[in-house]
Design brief:
The radius of gyration is 27 Å and the shape is globular. It is about 35% helix and about 20% strand. Helix 1 (about 25-30) crosses helix 3 (about 55-65), helix 2 packs antiparallel against helix 3 and helix 9 runs parallel beside helix 11 (about 255-265). The chain has a 9-stranded mixed β-sheet, with helices on both faces. Strands 1-2 form a two-stranded antiparallel sheet. Strands 4-5 form a two-stranded antiparallel ribbon. The chain has helices spanning about 25-30, 35-45, 55-65, 70-80, 105-110, 140-150, 175-185, 200-205, 220-230, 240-245, 255-265, 360-365, 375-380, 385-395, 410-415, and strands spanning about 115-120, 125, 130-135, 155, 160, 165-170, 195-200, 235-240, 270-280, 300-305, 315-325, 335-340, 350-355, 400-405, 405-410. The protein folds into 3 domains: about 1-80, no CATH class; about 115-355, 3-Layer(aba) Sandwich (Rossmann fold); about 360-415, Winged helix-like DNA-binding domain superfamily/Winged helix DNA-binding domain (Arc Repressor Mutant, subunit A, Orthogonal Bundle). The two termini are about 50 Å apart. It is an alpha/beta fold.
Length: about 425
């Protein structure tokens, strides 16, 4: 049972600071949450009025009783995050924007430096990339592999780390010992890195008494931006949205916008950003979980999913597909299968296979009554390819139309493909 807050009836005489009906510290403490306390303290810190002095401690004293947390813990949590100040920049004279306008003729004559390629063909300096995948598929292994390859100038299939850069991994969910084990296993048999890989681990930060990283918190975004601005990193990997933005409504564009603006501000530092996120509930589809605004500013979006016919015994093995690529196309971004091989010495190495496709799988799905519109989703093949396979299967007397968009085996088709195992699709 929560301890009752002290009856401190002092009114906060700061217009608009606390919501209506919570104008006393006691009332505030009755309804406080860690999130509202964080927001209120940031607002309070940004106010110039001298009468706000001392309110920070009063707020934390009252909140500590309601939240049943030691005062010193709360004080440490909220003072280690530099608050965001008022976003208005009085130094900006809007009339001077005319000086920033460039005519087409002048624009085409400008010498604009080409951005270096970090990981060919899809990652350049300053790019913004999302990698999404269902839970448990092995996306963290893939991301760690990308980081290890990037710092050593290695290849992952047709991907080549052409310009190794210093990297920062912001990890929000792995235990420190597990993270250490994974990086160790990936690097055990590799050459020494050419560039640094630094780790900012939520678990290790917690052990050292730092507050948990939270990109939904404007103070955290500012602190991280200040770190990156003073650093020599070329790539930051954020793993992952859910773990590093607790309480964020992923379906809300409005709540995502401040984080999106933060990511854009990092790209303006010429730092590439790779964000890891979960796929939607339907594992057969490519969409990320939450608002479509996640993809608005992206240069590249990559989806990881289990390949057709995947079995649990296959371990870390998934199909890599580009669902958005702003400046790359064709064979350079063909899907491929990524997997990890375990070795007796505890090391792991990555392996890349060309994607193979069995047309019999499509015929078997159609013959078993799976609607034609669902087959491309299940097999991760374009609709035109399935249509061609269907037409040929009809001509070969393997399937026949039952109703619009639905087919079934003919006697010949059932003899040839009736035993085809479609349970893994």
């Amino acid at each position: 049972m929560r301890a009752k807050p002290r009856a401190n009836g002092k009114i906060l005489e700061i217009g608009g600071f606390l919501p209506e009906k919570t104008q006393t510290l006691s009332n505030f403490a009755e309804a406080v949450t860690p999130e509202t306390l964080s927001v209120f303290l940031q607002q309070l810190a940004s106010r110039p009025e001298p009468q706000t002095e001392g309110y920070e401690n009063l707020l934390i004293v009252e909140a500590a009783q309601t939240l049943e947390m030691p005062f010193d813990d709360l004080l440490q949590n909220y003072r280690k995050i530099k608050p965001v100040q008022d976003g208005n920049d009085s130094s900006l004279d809007l009339q001077n924007l005319f000086e920033a306008v460039v005519s087409e003729a002048d624009f085409l004559k400008m010498e604009i430096k080409s951005r270096p390629v970090i990981m060919a063909p899809w990652l350049k300096q300053g790019d913004l990339v999302f990698i999404n995948a269902p839970r448990g598929i092995g996306k963290t292994w893939a991301v760690h592999s990308i980081l290890v390859a990037t710092t050593r100038g290695l290849k992952i299939g047709s991907w080549k780390a052409e310009n190794p850069v210093n990297c920062l991994l912001l990890d929000g969910e792995m235990a420190g010992d597990d993270l250490q084990s994974r990086i160790g296993r990936l690097t055990r048999t590799l050459q020494n890195p050419k560039k640094r890989l630094d780790i900012l681990s939520a678990d290790l930060m917690h052990q050292k008494g730092f507050p948990t990283p939270n990109l939904a918190n404007p103070g955290w975004r500012l602190s991280l931006y200040n770190l990156l601005e003073k650093s020599d990193y070329g790539l930051i990997v954020i793993d992952n949205v859910a773990a590093l933005s607790p309480g964020l409504d992923e379906n809300s564009k409005q709540e995502w916008d401040p984080i999106n603006q933060f990511l854009l501000s990092v790209r303006f530092l010429s730092i590439a950003v790779v964000v890891i996120h979960h796929s939607g509930k339907d594992p057969k589809r490519t969409s990320q979980r939450g608002t479509s605004a996640h993809e608005d500013a992206l240069d590249t979006s990559i989806t990881l999913r289990q390949p057709p016919g995947y079995k649990q015994t296959d371990g870390c093995r998934f199909l890599v597909e580009f669902t958005k690529a702003r400046s790359v196309c064709g064979d350079k971004i063909k899907p491929f299968i990524f997997s990890l091989d375990d070795h007796d010495d505890g090391s792991v190495t990555w392996r890349v296979e060309s994607r193979s496709f069995d047309s019999n799988a499509a015929i078997a799905l159609l013959g078993n009554g799976i609607a034609q519109k669902e087959v491309p989703i299940m097999l991760h093949i374009d609709k035109a390819t399935i249509s061609k396979i269907k037409t040929k299967a009809i001509d070969d007397d393997l399937i026949k139309k039952e109703k619009r968009g639905v087919y079934k085996f003919t006697a010949k088709g059932r003899r040839q493909l009736g035993d085809y195992d479609i349970s893994n699709f």
